[in-house]
Amino acid sequence: MSESASSQGARERRRQATHTALVDHARRLTAEHGLSGFTVEELAEAADVSRRTFFNYFQTKEDAVLGVGSEDLPLATDSAFVDSADPLPAALKDLFLRRFPSHQRFGHDVAIFMELLHSETALMRRMMQINEQRRRDLAALIARRESLPDTDPFALAAAGFSGHLLMTSLHEFVSEEHADPPSSSSELTEEATRARFAHILEANFAHAERLFAPASPRSKD
């Protein structure tokens, strides 16, 4: 491995460690004091970073609790999706898998995350805002790929429906971890976690394809 590659890998590990520390402390402080019971400065101090560093990673406290970093918010231009020769459903699945968050973003205690999400209305509201922005971004990407106007009804419908499949898959994935969290001695690797999520996503897309597949008329006998 070259010195530059090694250095880049070390920077990425430090970045991920800082990201994880901010998320973990944001969730801990929210569980202990409520979302309005601490400041960004107190969160940054708990994670041993500066206020400026915090805003390099997250836009708001809500985003830190959700684990949604500043670089995650816009879908922006995804050339691999736009240029893919695969059918649209396959390209969407590939897009969702490439953008699947790492295991660390769910944290080690999924139960706490789920409790916070349902007890703090600001968190649920922020998640809904993020999801709506992603739906619009995805519709624009689909429209670009299919050479359609950004507001084309097909692009909007495809973004909404596939986005719902994604959220259903994420909810199923998180619920499984909530019910059967990995032990510290056998914690899932990121590769295994992605494979687990891919299986769930593939199954839900298959259900959708079955729903819309042409079917023979049901016998009335």
TrEMBL record:
Domain HTH tetR-type: 16-76
InterPro entries (alphabetical): DNA-bd_HTH_TetR-type_CS, Homeodomain-like_sf, HTH-type_TetR-like_transc_reg, HTH_TetR
Residues of the DNA-binding region: 39-58
Keywords attached to this entry: DNA-binding, Transcription, Transcription regulation
Gene Ontology molecular function: any one: DNA-binding transcription factor activity
Pfam family, one: TetR_N
Ranges annotated as spanning the membrane: none
UniProt protein name: AcrR family transcriptional regulator
Organism the protein comes from: Zhihengliuella flava
